Amino acid sequence: MIPGLSGAPSWIVTFADLMTLLLTFFILLLSFSNLDAEKYRAIAYSMSKAFGVSWAPGSQVDPDLPPIIIVAPEGTSTGESDGPPTDQNLPPVPPVAPPSLEASSEIMAKAALAENDALATKLIGRLEQQLADDEVDIRFDDKGVVLTFTERASFASGSAELKQYMRPVLMKVVDELSSCEGDIIVTGHTDNEPIDSARFRSNWDLSAARAVSVVHQLVLDGRLNASRVEAVGMAETRPLVNNDSEENRARNRRVEIIIENAHCDFQQ
């Protein structure tokens, strides 16, 4: 008879013995956990199976599965001696920071440069003869592709009528641009000499009329959407070189086709 239980129902004795045994059993399990956490978890899992108790998610995985990696909080000890890192004392993995604004801008600039490089390469291949004759210049960067046509190749002096020679050349440009998305800006440029013409009031009129003539040829056959194209007259405000000689003034008289935000599909 257990002291203090005299006069109690007979079943309470069996219940008290069971509680004492369970207490002893869990103390034993606790002592195991201090010595070997893996054995403790395996025994606890087996006991839960034997008693038909559902295993709580996250408390212990099936011993047949890979072991759980326990990460010790920073500044605490795992109870193991110093040595190489183990599964139970690996440092926490720092979160991966999203790309900075500068890094994102650099990635976008490199992608734009690659697109413009591909387009410029195509245009160079189509305009080899004009490049060899110094009638056109092609350059590009991450902002866009620029085709510069000389006045000698495109217009008669003081005229906004496109030369017949220039029309098939511009069709070659359309052949490539029809496979691309992006904005197309045509700019007309003159030198700083005042114009003497009954048709044009100033270099502004002449440069704008030349830009419009080129735009008209680009959209003539409908392969380029007119909403993509813009004509701008710059007069003498954007010279390539100083207007201090006839040769330099001739270089400044030009028409430029600028392609921005190009996205091309040359597989079509």
Pick out its properties.
268 residues, alpha+beta, 60s Ribosomal Protein L30, Chain: A, five-stranded mixed beta sheet, 8 helices, 5 strands, 41% helix, rod-shaped
Q: How do the helices and strands line up, and which of them pair or pack?
A:
Elements: H1 11-35, H2 37-50, H3 101-126, H4 128-132, E1 136-140, E2 144-150, H5 151-154, H6 166-177, E3 180-189, H7 203-218, E4 229-233, H8 246-252, E5 254-264
Parallel strand pairs: 3-4
Antiparallel strand pairs: 1-2, 2-5, 3-5
Helix pairs in contact: 1-2, 3-6
Question: How would you portray this structure in words?
Answer:
- The protein has two domains: 7-95, no CATH class; 101-264, 60s Ribosomal Protein L30, Chain: A, CATH 3.30.1330.
- The protein is rod-shaped and about 130 Å long.
- β1 and β2 (144-150) form a beta hairpin.
- 41% of the residues lie in helices and 14% in strands.
- The protein has eight helices and five strands.
- It has a five-stranded mixed β-sheet with strand order 1-2-5-3-4.
- The protein is α+β, with helices and mostly antiparallel strands and 268 residues long.
